[in-house]
Write a structure and sequence with these properties.
1 helix, about 15% helix, four-stranded antiparallel β-sheet, mainly beta, 2 domains, five-stranded antiparallel β-sheet, elongated, 11 strands
Length: about 170
């Protein structure tokens, strides 16, 4: 019996020492790449914490210069309702952002006596021809369509929200 009690005591002590070592070393789960890593310098005992790399901030290439869209391609930040004409006047219908929400935009396209509207949140794209459109949302910017739209189509991509809460929109006229 004495051997069994001693074995149980050794196992308990070993488990406690292992738990204490993990707690002191600041171990992070191996499957969490975003976790901060803490290390201790053996010579000085000082702790150093290395943070996971931050995602790059989203910024519109053309800022809030909506006139950049006149050539049929632009990437602009939209913080408030605005009508944006992509291409030469008469080439497409104005795309109107009617509201900017914390997650995306509400929009409308009007012309020829009819109008259509909707909303998109996150990372999305919509293709419009006249006042009809189709949209889809994806999980990441890399999943957006990078092919040029067909002639007469307007491709609008919501890339996300910038640090100031403005929607970053990319327009491409086919």
């Amino acid at each position: 019996m004495r051997s069994t009690a001693r074995t149980a005591t050794v196992r308990t002590a070993t488990a406690l020492l292992a738990a204490a070592a993990l707690a002191v070393c600041g171990a992070q789960p191996a499957d969490d790449p975003a976790a901060d890593a803490t290390t201790r310098d053996p010579a000085t005992g000082a702790e150093t914490t290395a943070s996971a790399p931050a995602e790059p901030e989203l910024a519109a290439a053309d800022g809030d210069d909506y006139t950049a869209c006149a050539d049929g391609a632009c990437e602009v930040a939209v913080a408030e309702p605005v009508a944006i004409t992509v291409g030469a006047p008469g080439e497409t219908l104005p795309f109107e952002v009617t509201a900017v929400t914390g997650e995306g935009i509400e929009f409308s396209i009007a012309g020829g006596g009819s109008s259509v509207g909707g909303s998109v949140n996150g990372v999305c794209e919509l293709t419009a021809v006249g006042t009809s459109f189709q949209s889809r949302c994806v999980g990441d910017i890399a999943e957006l369509d990078d092919t040029a739209p067909a002639a007469g189509e307007l491709l609008v991509q919501l890339l996300g929200m910038d640090a100031d809460g403005a929607a970053v929109l990319r327009f491409t006229l086919g």
